Amino acid sequence: MSVSVLNQLTSAFEKAFADLGFPPEFGSVRESDRPDLAPFQCNGAMAAAGFLKKQGEKANPRDIAAKIAEAVSGSDLIAGTEIAGPGFINIIPGESIVAKRANELRADDRSGAVLTAPKTIVIDYGGANVAKPMHVGHLRSAVIGEALKRLMRFRGHKVIGDVHLGDWGLQMGHLISELEDEQPGLVYFDAKITDGYPSDSPVTMDDMARMYPAASAKAKSDEARMKRSQTATAELQSGRPGYRALLDHFISVSIAYLKKGYGDLGVTFDLWKGEASVDPLIPDMIEAMKAKGITEDSDGALIIRVDENYDSEKRKGLPPVMLKSSAGAVLYHTTDLATLIDRKNEIDPDLILYVVDQRQAAHFKQVFKAAEMAGWYDPEQLEHLGFGTVNGKDGKPFKTRDGDALRLSDLTKMMRDAAKERLVKQDIGQDYPRDEQEDIADKVGMAALKFADLQNQRLTDYTFDAERFTAFEGKTGPYLLYAAVRIKSILRRAAEKGVQPGTIMVTDKAETQLLLALDAFDRAVSLAADKRAPHILCEHVFRLAQSFSRFYTDCPILKDDVPEDIKASRLSFAQLTLTQLELGLDILGISVPERM
Ligand code: ARG
Fold first, then answer.
1. Which of 164, 331, 354, 387 to mutate to test the pocket of ligand 1 (most atoms within 8 A of CB)?
2. Which of 122, 129, 364 to mutate to test the pocket of ligand 1 (most atoms within 8 A of CB)?
3. 167 lines ligand 1 (CB under 6 A)
4. Which residue numbers in the chain have pLDDT < 70?
């Protein structure tokens, strides 16, 4: 198996330290803080000096560094070393090794990214609610969850994405009672009828989007109205056939709508399960938890104490899990626990990742703890991956001018419009056919939105700014698309001129720095996966695009005075860069147009 230049250097330095009687891990090599001096450095000499001092021996880190540098020199691997400061070893890799590695990457359709031991992973993301329009609050879960799903798949895992719809709470009761007010004659409300319901839904998505807030507002000021919604919820949950039939309509109308909304973002799910789909598992689950002795009756409600240090007065610690309210209703905790049973039965995953707003952190702590107490899962199998909010320029959660949550469809439209405007302003692709212009604007808008989201550390909030996101300069999605498209155009021109890519040779520093940027792909992919941090991959693709641009400035490819073998070599560099850029962007859920 092929090994990155950095890992080859690490092996050589580890051996050198071990030969001098030091722990080999002192030989760890990393990317340099001063790439202008040398691309890599090893800082183990300081640790080695400390190691000797502890044993009562005198030691000078610069002397140790000199010995190590001496030991590693003389191979193809290292062109030169230099000792800096108190004992840093700066390392310049040998050109032949760099070229060899470049040719290995070129032959590898994974661009150097190795596969890992496969696990079965469920990613719970999306989390949209039935009967409610998608809004800006659903953006991050969809974008981050999709990227993590693709990243984990790329690593070699078996990944199942589940949207986990919210479809089992009071909102369903609101909708049912509101529908009864509007159309009392519908068969669903006749308790004597128990089957043979119409296959067409009595409501559209727009109806539901209007009815739910109306009912909820009425219920806030009208106790009797609230009671009716609660009763409808309880009857639905205890299986009243007409209400179940209505719920099925609500769910299928919503799924059709949601598939379109998520589809616009390029987000897809393997499972469209939800809270309602695990309801049949709840009675047995509760019995099993009772039998385990972990439940408790608390003023008529059924709870699980998950934190012995919980103090409600001092608001300290984690409140108990609520399995059943005193009115007998099941709650968000209950459905999430039943979902864990369902996933165990159907999938038996090694790991479940929940990509859900950080404001639900306590909820997941409670659920995970209860699942652990029940003996179903180990703590390391369940992870909540929270994220921060999308803010407006006022620093508050992004809203419309009227103060409503912005609809996701309006937000994606804003991005497409901003992209279109930008393309006109910069005169990009304005002479292309209309359809193609639309397609490019779509890709630029989505790349802008997704990259702006994913490049942040997950937990930080960020400010929505369509203008800044769609800029072609700076660390943006459009910059990356432009970089990729530029390479595509170089490859097209080469093909027209009959220049074929060939064996890579290293003739210039700019080629070395490009290869070393390419060679960091596996590290970025594995680190991003281990830390569940797409921003690490964003950083990588951005650096790669910058490295290519430096390379292309210093190393012309198709100019007439470039020798044929160097043309072929540099063309391979271009192709390799494009392959890796597209792989990386594809993991981030970003697709590249053919030209711009
Ligand atoms: N529907 C929930 C909400 O809107 C999010 C669901 C997240 N996933 C989960 N398994 N709880 O807040």
1. 164
2. 129
3. no
4. 1
**Residue 400 has what pLDDT?**
78
First to last CA, the chain: 38
pLDDT for 415: 97
Q: Is the CB of 127 under 6 A from ligand 1?
A: yes
CA of 163 to the centre of ligand 1 (A): 9
- Residue 329 is predicted with a pLDDT of 84
> What is the CATH code of the structural domain delimited by 5-93?
3.30.1360.70
Residues 6 or more apart in contact with residue 564 via CB below 8 angstroms: 499
Give the HSE-up count for residue 370: Cα atoms under 13 Å, Cβ half-sphere.
32
Residue spans in the chain of domains classed CATH 1.10.730.10: 408-587
CATH homologous superfamily of 408-587: Isoleucyl-tRNA Synthetase; Domain 1 (1.10.730.10)
Alpha-carbon gap, residue 223 to 226, rounded angstroms = 5
Helix boundaries (H) for 114-182 = 139-155, 170-182
Ligand 1 geometric centre to CA of 355 (Å): 9
Pocket test for ligand 1, best of 330, 356, 384, 389 (most atoms within 8 A of CB): 356
| pLDDT for residue 1 | 55
Distance CA 97, CA 574 (A): 19
Rounded distance from Cα 357 to ligand 1 centre (Å):
9
- Position 405 scores a pLDDT of 81
Ligand 1 geometric centre to CA of 356 (Å): 7
Separation between Cα atoms, residue 50 and residue 60, nearest integer Å: 9
Pair of tokens at residue 424: 């006109």
In this prediction, residue 278 carries a pLDDT of 96
Within 10 angstroms of residue 525's Cβ, the number of other Cβ atoms is 25
Bridge partners of 301, per DSSP, are 298
Predicted confidence at residue 169, as pLDDT, reads: 87
5 close to ligand 1 (CB < 6 Angstrom): no
Contact 213, 149 (CB under 8 A): no
Name the segment(s) of the chain with CATH classification 3.30.1360.70: 5-93
